[in-house]
């Protein structure tokens, strides 16, 4: 996924680049300090996504978004701004999301999930992606991604739960999420990644919180309030 950052504040661009570094399937291909320079990047680099500030010298981010509406292959737009007052205008130009500064990792994670469903992500070539190397006591074994029910992180250790057994893995969840991008996994909580075809029930747990029942798993999986809306859309509920 090719991303361009258009923001007149260098610190904000650096912060966003740092946060996006957690998503190996996303690449920042250009950045600009004004909408006018951003337009040049859009025409030359053809990014899939724009992270776009609103209040900038000269043309505003909203003006740029309106200019792009007639493009044949216009990029998806995420407004990233300190101003909450432009949300309605953002809706009118069909923005994917509206992130407020200072950026929050959980909110960005939801945005990236949304973008992943909208933009075709080409997996990077890697012959090892067919299976995952995991630990089974003192052995290293290889697990097929399609056999994984869910993945969770607990006390600095990652656990891979399959139809038959639970294994440990040294990789953090974000790296596993990137490796499994061509499979139907979804982040339901900062510590849980679930393979959606195995979901059997979405159970209300009070105050907008839910739990998931996964086929073949004994324990219920917590669903963070921040991920409920996107999860319901993915499950077509």
UniProtKB/TrEMBL annotation:
A single GO molecular-function term is: DNA binding
Response regulatory domain residues = 2-116
Family annotation (InterPro entries): CheY-like_superfamily (IPR011006), LytR-like (IPR046947), LytTR_DNA-bd_dom (IPR007492), Sig_transdc_resp-reg_receiver (IPR001789)
* Domain HTH LytTR-type positions: 132-237
As stated in the Swiss-Prot or TrEMBL entry, residues carrying the post-translational modification 4-aspartylphosphate are 53
Question: What SUPFAM superfamilies has UniProt attached to this entry?
Answer: CheY-like
The record ties this protein, via Pfam families, to: LytTR, Response_reg
The signal sequence is none
Which keywords has UniProt assigned to this entry? Phosphoprotein
Write the protein's name: Response regulator
